[in-house]
């Protein structure tokens, strides 16, 4: 049988780099969180072990060295996303905290009647902070609809822009459907009405080359744990001139210039937004993850995952009663349903065959309403997956349809 270009997967499995993948299971839940390569685990262990000390405060050599590594990690992140300078990189707990920070800090300048434009496919973390801001200030939230194949409808989004629109906040890659937004086009349209663009890059950062300047974003957020790095660490990137004008939202150590009981002055960004002792080892682990990902190359990763999704679409598409959601060229993520079978049952039966997928609303309940389903089953791919994982997924799905076909016949 001939293998088409669409299903050809680059040679060489990387499973051996990932201790979490031992035990012959097909891990297809990377969109929830990625497994960690040994180099990342080693970097974290070293940071907590032989290298451990605090940052920014110590006068002793160990602390100075740790501070250097911590700030070198900021440079790694800046290079990775093509930021103009490391000072634009704020370390936060994750994408969720990054979006909340923008809503709570930059959001203070919004007044009743100002508008924030989201899309129908957003993760709850890019919906709820704006609703909380709405409750505090009386802003309005607009929602751009989707195309039939589950992408943000950019024409419709542009039609919703008004002079009162102050911010457009959208996912670069949908965590449910995998569609890639045309962020450069959306940035141009937002800027034309004087609005800013916040991009939720949680799924994109591990799948696409990110150039925050080329895309014209104003804020970009992502989480370390979806990028083969640690939990508890993420990035808020913001344009320097914007961060400069933003008030802090947490007060404490490390974010100040001088403190008296009469008045306190704040440090410049990024320190202004990093109150307290930071997640030192996690920052260093994140830099190790970025080094690992860059050693493979984002273009190679994207090609690899696109090929796996194409193979999965082809294999599942042949199975009667399977519905596939999302665009044909989705980036590493494939949501699907089986007629008459709840996604949780699909997940449970697949688990019996050693195939781990996610079943649920994926923190995107408004999108489930658009799709007209309470939940989907979702297979998501990473740099360690291969065609064997796709074959196991397809075999598992066939088993699900047999089991439920049999149940139906028995009734
Ligand atoms: N946005 C998207 C698109 C996501 O996929 C996720 C994680 N599922 C988040 C935001 C939130 O990320 P975290 O939970 O790491 O803060």
Automatic annotation (TrEMBL):
GO terms for biological process: cysteine metabolic process. Its EC number is 2.8.1.7. GO terms for molecular function: cysteine desulfurase activity; pyridoxal phosphate binding. The keyword Transferase applies. It is an enzyme of class 2 (transferase). Its cofactor is pyridoxal 5'-phosphate. Gene3D superfamilies: Aspartate Aminotransferase, domain 1 (3.90.1150.10), Type I PLP-dependent aspartate aminotransferase-like (Major domain) (3.40.640.10). It catalyses: (sulfur carrier)-H + L-cysteine = (sulfur carrier)-SH + L-alanine. The keyword Cell cycle does not apply. It comes from the Bacteria. Pfam families: Aminotran_5. Residues 27-393 form the Aminotransferase class V domain. Residues 1-15 are annotated as: Disordered. CDD domains: SufS_like. Keywords: Pyridoxal phosphate, Transferase. Belongs to the class-V pyridoxal-phosphate-dependent aminotransferase family. Csd subfamily. NCBIfam families: sufS. This is cysteine desulfurase. It comes from Sandarakinorhabdus fusca. The lineage of its organism: Bacteria, Pseudomonadati, Pseudomonadota, Alphaproteobacteria, Sphingomonadales.
């Amino acid at each position: 049988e001939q293998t088409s270009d669409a299903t050809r997967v680059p040679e060489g499995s990387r499973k051996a780099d990932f201790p979490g993948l031992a035990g012959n299971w097909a891990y297809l839940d990377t969109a929830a969180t990625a497994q960690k390569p040994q180099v990342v685990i080693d970097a974290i262990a070293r940071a907590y072990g032989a290298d451990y000390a605090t940052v920014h405060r110590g006068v002793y050599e160990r602390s100075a060295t740790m501070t250097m590594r911590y700030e070198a990690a900021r440079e790694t992140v800046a290079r990775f996303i093509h930021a103009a300078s490391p000072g634009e990189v704020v370390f936060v707990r994750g994408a969720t905290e990054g979006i909340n920070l923008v809503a709570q800090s930059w959001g203070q300048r919004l007044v009743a009647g100002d508008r924030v434009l989201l899309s129908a496919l957003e993760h709850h973390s890019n919906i709820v902070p704006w609703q909380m801001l709405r409750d505090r200030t009386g802003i309005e939230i607009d929602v751009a609809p989707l195309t039939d194949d589950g992408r943000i409808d950019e024409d419709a989004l542009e039609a919703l822009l008004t002079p009162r629109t102050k911010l457009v906040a959208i996912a670069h890659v949908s965590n449910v459907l995998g569609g890639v937004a045309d962020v450069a086009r959306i940035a141009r349209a937002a800027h034309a009405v004087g609005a800013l663009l916040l991009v939720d890059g949680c799924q994109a950062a591990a799948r696409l080359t990110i150039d925050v300047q080329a895309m014209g974003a104003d804020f970009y957020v992502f989480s370390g744990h979806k990028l083969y790095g640690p939990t508890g660490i993420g990035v808020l990137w913001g344009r320097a001139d914007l961060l400069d004008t933003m008030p802090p939202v947490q007060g404490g150590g490390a974010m100040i210039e001088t403190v008296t009981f009469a008045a306190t002055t704040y440090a410049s960004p990024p320190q202004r937004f990093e109150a307290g002792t930071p997640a030192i080892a996690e920052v260093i682990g994140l830099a190790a993850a970025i080094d690992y990902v860059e050693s493979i190359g984002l273009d190679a990763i994207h090609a690899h995952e696109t090929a796996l999704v194409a193979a999965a679409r082809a294999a599942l598409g042949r199975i009667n009663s399977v519905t596939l959601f999302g665009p044909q060229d989705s980036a590493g993520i494939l949501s699907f349903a089986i007629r008459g079978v709840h996604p949780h049952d699909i997940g449970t039966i697949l688990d019996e065959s050693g195939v781990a997928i996610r079943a649920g609303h994926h923190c995107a309940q408004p999108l489930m309403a658009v799709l007209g389903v309470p939940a989907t089953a979702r297979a998501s791919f990473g740099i360690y997956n291969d065609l064997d994982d796709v074959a196991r997924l397809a075999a598992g799905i066939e088993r699900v349809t047999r089991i439920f076909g049999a149940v139906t016949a028995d009734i």
